[in-house]
Amino acid sequence: MPKDNRAPAACQPLLPAIVLAGSRPGVDPLAQAAGVATKALVPVAGRPMIDHVARALLAHPAIGEVVVMAQRAESLADHPQTAWLRAEPRIRFVDSGSGISQSLLDWMAGEDARLPALVTTADNVLLDGAILDAFLAGAQGADVAAAMVERAVLVRAYPQSRRTWLKFRGGAWSGANLFWLGSERAANALRKWREIEQDRKKGWKIVSAFGPLLLLGAGLRLLSVHRAIAAAGRRLGAGEARIVPLPVAEACIDADKPDDIALIERIIAARGTA
Questions:
Q1: Which terms are listed as keywords in the entry (predicted)?
Q2: What DSSP line would sit under 131-193, residue for residue?
Q3: I need a surface site. Which of 101, 108, 138, 160 has the fewest CB within 10 A?
């Protein structure tokens, strides 16, 4: 297993990291095209997605246990290139429940859970030490946090990459698949998001969760992304909610489409880390 030579801060406990590696309902087109059972096993630069992410997390000096969460989590180690996950003492497999929010709530309620914790996804293939450093430095002290990349950061480096942008006052932002559960108050946000997940076709549920003034302010771009997430955290009872802006363009390039995978493989080849 690759090791990172940077030393963690003195007396600072290691963080658990949760990798969301489950499947959405229906057939995943990337998994189907690759002939594998689930998206987390789709090969990128010759290795399954989950292999890239797990190795990046285990190599970081701030990370302790890595929890792989999926519908049949341990089956992800049945692949020849991921069999090492089963033998790695810092890897723990946890079967997920009905939806991401409920699965994280179930984990938080378990005896082995420890906060703060990092959450990422199995398709976050370009995750590395620099991205983790930037996020962890910005998330410390928050009850809940999410990493995002501003559009100008990505466009300067990879103008061909197409992402979904959330527009706020002062910029447009894309998610970076990194989240922070800083305290028990994060459970309040997860419970509210669980309600939205269950009734996502009912627009009034979203309005009731975030409030009409907050949605209007964000929709009209009267609020910056930082003010919007801070207000949302208070509204949801989640304490201090924070956006962590990342200066690394690769942080928001996840493997959602064939074009994404082609770009990721070019980046990995340029890094020489395949």
A1: Magnesium, Nucleotidyltransferase, Transferase
A2: HHHHHHHHHTT-SEEEEEEEHHHHHHH-TT-----EEETTEEEEEEEEEEE-STTHHHHHHHH
A3: 160
